[in-house]
Every structure is written in structure tokens, then in C-alpha cells.
Amino acid sequence: MKSIFFFCLLTGTVLAQTPPKRPIAPSDILRLQNITDPQVSPEGSWVAFALSSVDKEKDKRNSDIWMISWDGKQSVQLTSSPDGESSPRWSPDGRYLSFVATRQGDKDSQLWLLDRRGGEGKKLTDLKGELEEYEWAPNGKTVALVIRDKDYSDSAKTKIRTPYVIDRRHFKEDRKGYLDRRAAHLYLFDVETKKLDTLTTGIYDETSPVWSPDSKQIVFVSNRTADPDKNENTDLFVLDARPKSSLKQLTNWAGSDNNPVWSPDGTQIAYLRSTASTNFIMYDQPILSVISATGGEPKLVSAALDRPVRNPRWSVDGKSVAVLVDDDRRTYVSAYDLASGQPNRLAAGDCAFADLEQNPKGGWVTLMSKPQLPAEIYAVENGNTRRLTTIQDAFVAPLLLASVEGFTSRSKDGTQVENLLFRPANAPTGQKMPTILFIHGGPVGQDNFGFDLARQILASGGYAVAGVNYRGSSGRGLAFCKAIYGDWGNREVADILGAADYLVANGIADPAKLGIGGWSYGGILTNYTIATDQRFKAAASGAGSSLQMTMYGSDQYVNQYENELGLPWKNTDKWLKVSYPFLKADRIKTPTLFMGGEKDFNVPIAGSEQMYQALKSLSVPTQLIVYPGQFHGLSIPSYQTDRFDRYLKWFDQYLKTSVAVLGTGK
Fold first, then answer.
1. Per-residue pLDDT reduced to its tens digit, 583-617
2. Angle at the Cα of 620 (from 614 to 626), degrees rounded to 5?
3. How many Å apart are CA 189 and CA 179, to the nearest integer?
4. What is the CATH number of domain 127-154+168-294?
């Protein structure tokens, strides 16, 4: 040791010491970069993607366009504008990358073009209206655009906005606000002449345009029922790529048909069809289906799977269609052979795949995250996954992250529930821990083995954290998903309490230090649970509701309410039954923190305000946090960190965790 010391003195060498790792903290949200929308170049050598990071001075996220080589050895940043760029797409000849941006004082987003050989981006369009989607024609001459009609309703010359004039059944939506009758239509944009031609008109919206391989036709999705606000029906339509061409309806399923993808030879279209044919399909799982490009009876390829599939993509040879499958805390990549109808797992494991695109040379590109690694871009080739990007290494390098394991609990009626447990780094072995059950939203969705920032941060406070895939969750089959239909706060609560019983019985959770929380339906279930059972010593309910009758007409779920619960003035008893957390608020003894966004039209802040007022009147410790100008999901980085700071302080206050032992420094 002395010889090394004297050698360093003589040579001036400095031996770098690796700093000790630390628990993740709410402030690490500001360091996390998000990768989205990977797109493979036409020759298969590069993958373009959008990368967002936090601008701390402006307190917002900014997205730039990057590309990584297929071998993962070269990465290039293509844009660095403070305005932000998204939706990268390759021109068919591979020479250009297009993207969407709002620059140079434009009020509406425009399409921009970047020569991949270098130089600045050039604005391609000057659209009047909201650009929602776009796709290049395979011949590279035209681009299909989805543009929502421009809003001319506010023509006031002062800063006082004109009144909203509303006559729709579905009249409000989170982030969009109050809804008018402006429609989103298909347009053709000529890249060389800059001419914009109209393909569709009328009162209906068109989405998801996809070109046929010969650039002659476009398939798209639309709800053409008499009143689209009254149902969730969508069908596939085809039209020739020229003005005033007539539409041909390909599907007529009363449920939903969407996500069309044309086969390489142009003879078939793969898409997703809902399992149910009803006008309300929240508790559902999509089926991979294939139909002739000329119409006819579809083939329901994945019907026997009884699991939801998404992101259908054709193989290069057109013999199979790859999909992502949500299955029991995992999302894997599978390819269905169309001749045999048999699936073949291409990539799986204790992880979660998201996004899927074909490489023209063979193989696939995907996003994949693991319990201790946020999403990175991977190649899937010959049954193997190969990591392309290493962007998240800098994020995880200094962090001590919780370990993640699965566990199975049983509810009082015997139902088996599959869950996840996050154990804090450096947690004492064999010692019962303060435990937080952090409940996912949806309700349709699942906690999986992907990276979970929320539960990692909560675990850093010295808590065991459990994610419960209660009935209503996906990944366990359609019957499991539909089990809570019209009966909220019953079976889900039984499943949550069953998971708590398991954690206590197995010496993991300290029964005197149990907490519960969640956001959206996770907040709603928090309210249901603390009104049912008094074992929880602290709760954090985010963007939740309890007096469900008051949500009718104040949120965006009128179809769900009328289908599941019926009309409030006719089925009053049922509405009152699912409103029990508010109507039986005097049962609640748990100190509860309520949170929400000021402009949330998904689950309006009134739901949290009502519960806060009730507990305040009952002298139960409570607090209400309202995030100014925020919708259902918080988008301002400082608010995101604030939320988790408050979570930890609230749970620390009532669960009295000895976090210093676990190395958090608190």
C-alpha cells in the first residue's frame, strides 16, 4: 500500500475512487431520460428515436431526435433545439428523417425534414390546424397527414376568452379540455410541390393511416356510427390515395377494430379486434386478427391465448405477425405463424417490452426495461435480445435500487393474486419492515417486471413496497379482468387485503406499520380500502374519487357509468353502493394525504377535495395538495419530485420508519 502511495506522489497520478452508491431520491426524477418511438431506417442500419430530458431552468422536459447504429457502436444526436422534436420517421429512400416540432413562432406543430448527411432541419409544412399523425407513402412522394380542424371559436380581440359552446354528449376530456365538434381528417401532402389535398371530410374523426405497399391505398380507423360519443366502436376503412375517392368499410364488428398494418405483399391487413362486441369495452383484451385487403371474414389469430396483445408488426416474408403480449407481470414478444396459427416466443423473461418495429433485414427493434434498469432500445434476433443503447447506465450508476421479486397471495374467497415486492437495498434480513401497498391505476393494466420509478423511490425511504395485481388487472385472462364490472371497491379490496395478510404472515411487513397509496384508480382503491379496514396507519390518495355519483357529468367517463352502473336517477342504490368511502367516511381512521391536478378532467380534483373535507370534519389527520395547471398526469418536473417528497414525509410521519439504518441519511 505504501509503495502505491509513494508512486502516486512521484508521478502525480490520482487514483479515482468510486463514490459509494446511494438510495434513489425524488430529485433523481430530474436526471432520468426517457426513450420513445424507435424507428428502423429503410436499409436496416440505424434506429432513430426521441430522447427527452429535463431542462431544470425551464422546469420542463425537452425531446430531441437521436439515432443509434444497428450494431450499437455509434450514436448521433440529430437535433438540439429547445423547442423539442418528436415522432421521427425515415423517408422511404433513407435520405431524410422527418419529425414534428413547433418552432419559429408557429402556433401549430409542423412537419420538419432533416437530411441525415448533415445540416439544419427545414420546415416542410405550413398547416392550419393540429397535426396529430403522419406517415410516408412507400414511394416517398407523398405523406398522409391527420389534421384536426383549426379552432376559430375564440375570435375575441381582448384577453377574455369567448364562452365555450357545447352540444356534445362526450364534452370534456383530460388535457384536451372542453370538446367541440372539430373533426380530425386525412390529407395528402406532396413533398415536392408542397400541395395539400383533402381525402376525407365530414363530422367523423379518422386516425391511424397506413399505406399499402404500392402507395395506392390507405387503410385507416374511424367510428362511423350515428353518434360516436355514445359508443367505442371503430372499424377499418380503405380508400384510394387521391382526392374524392370513395371509402370501403373492411370490418363491421360492433366493438373496436384498430391498429391496422398492411402485409408486405399488400393482400392482407393485420389489426387488433376487441374481444367484446358491446359498445363499452374497457374490461377487454385485444385479439390479433387478419383480414383480406378486399374485406371478408377476419381470422382471429390469437383468440385462444386469453391474453391482451398489441403492436402488431408483419415479418419481412409476410408469413407471421409479431405482437407484444401482456402475461402475468411480464410483457413478451411473440410471433404468430399464420399458416399454423401457432405462436412462437421471440423474447421473454422477467422484464417488460414496449414498442416493436421490423428491421427490413430481419429481426426487430423494441424497448425493454428491467426491474433495475429503465427502458433501453434492444434488437431481437434469432430468439436473442441485444442491447443497443446504454443511455440509462449513467442514471443507475450511483444508485442503490430495491430488489424486485414476485409473490402470490390468496384473497378471502380463495382467489390467487400475483404481485410484486420491492425490498429496499441494504434492508436488514429477517426483520419486519414498514410496508406500503402502492396500488396501480387503470384498473385494466398490470404491475410488471419493468422499471418502476414510483415504487423504487418509496422503497428508498426504507419501506418494503408491494404492487398488487388485483381483480380488474390485465395479464390473467378476460374473466379476471371483468370480475369487477359494475362492482367497484369489493373484490379489488379483498385482493389488496389478502396481499397485506401474506406480507404480515410471512414476516415481511410490520403489521403496526402498514401504509397504502396510489394514483388514479390506485387512489380510488386507496379510498375504498381505508373505508373498509383500519389496519393502515397512513395513506396517500392521488387523483381519486369516492362520491361517485358526483363524477357523472364532471369527468370523461359517461359511457362507462351508464353501461356499468346505469343512470344515477334510475339506479341510485347501485351508485350509492360504490360511493361508500364518502358515505361511510366516519369509518376511516387512517391519516390520509390527498393529491390531484387542478385541471384534471379524468378524475377531477373534486374527488380529492370531497374526501379531504370529510376527514377534516371528522378530525382525521389529512392534507390536500393541488398542483396548479396540471392534468391527470403531472408533467412539470418540479411537481413530480414534490409529489414523492410529500409521499415520503407523510409515510415517515405516521409509520415512524427508522430509515437511517437503511442508509438514506434521513
1. 999 999 999 999 999 999 999 999 999 999 999 99
2. 60
3. 27
4. 2.130.10.10
